UniProtKB/TrEMBL annotation:
GO cellular component: nucleus
Name of protein: Ubiquitin-like-specific protease 1A
Organism lineage: Eukaryota, Viridiplantae, Streptophyta, Embryophyta, Tracheophyta
GO molecular function, one term: deSUMOylase activity
Domain Ubiquitin-like protease family profile residue range list: 24-192
Length: 229
């Protein structure tokens, strides 16, 4: 019976129930290392949430900023070197980025989620880390991701990377436990499709967990106050 439950998929997009289950957990302020996996949000959920952001824009193009989200596997291929930079670039077409003002790449490093964000209008490359103690870490990984965007993707789209800046923002909401990083990554991107402000804190994460479960189950992001804005 346990194996059957683990394989069960639910919702419009047939997401494994085992992947959605952590979203229904009530996260304590202090999480023991042995219990952390019970609350950890996996790549299946994170990547599908970015799909929902795309669907929302397509349904309401005048309310949200046009953006493009990469699957987290792109970062994994580049960082591990299992695919060449040119090979990864070949998977994307210039037309995919027409009119796009923001690019999102969720990244998972050692079970910690981060967001690499490209602001095309302001010519900025940004590394969002909800853990203030690790934001200056992962130097080699930063270099790999920066190199692919600045020397491969952006030039292919007609941008001169020499005019662009890189920053690790400090004035963003921070997680207060060890397991909500993925939730913060999803909410950073969600907020950035509205503008450049982040009206949430750690205190909102329980609501966001449950809201995200419902959004993923329904296959679309609910609009209005129930979303937390």
């Amino acid at each position: 019976m346990a194996n059957s439950c683990n394989k069960e998929s639910v919702g419009q997009d047939k997401i494994p129930l085992s992947a959605l289950a952590p979203l229904l957990m009530i996260t304590p302020h202090e999480v023991d290392y042995e219990n952390a996996q019970n609350y950890y949000i996996a790549d299946t959920v994170v990547n599908q949430f970015f799909v929902l952001l795309k669907r929302r824009y397509e349904k309401f193009p005048h309310k949200y900023m046009k953006h493009y989200s990469f699957d987290s596997c792109i970062a994994t291929y580049l960082i591990k070197g299992s695919r060449t930079e040119d090979e990864v670039l070949s998977w994307f077409k210039k037309k995919d980025f027409k009119g796009v003002s923001k690019l999102f790449l969720p990244i998972c490093l050692h079970e910690h989620w981060l967001l690499f964000y490209v602001d095309i209008d302001d010519k900025k490359l940004l590394w969002f880390d909800s853990d203030e103690h690790s934001r200056m870490s992962n130097v080699s990984e930063k270099k790999v991701i920066l190199r692919w965007f600045s020397e491969f993707l952006l030039p292919s789209l007609g941008h001169d990377h020499k005019d662009w800046s890189f920053d690790v923002p400090k004035d963003i909401p921070l997680q207060k436990n060890s397991v909500d990083c993925a939730l913060f990554v999803m909410k950073y991107a969600d907020c950035l499709t509205h503008g450049n402000y982040f009206p949430f804190t750690q205190d909102d994460t329980l609501h966001f967990r449950h809201r995200t479960f419902l959004d993923l189950y329904c296959g679309s992001i609910c609009l209005g106050r129930s979303q937390g804005y």
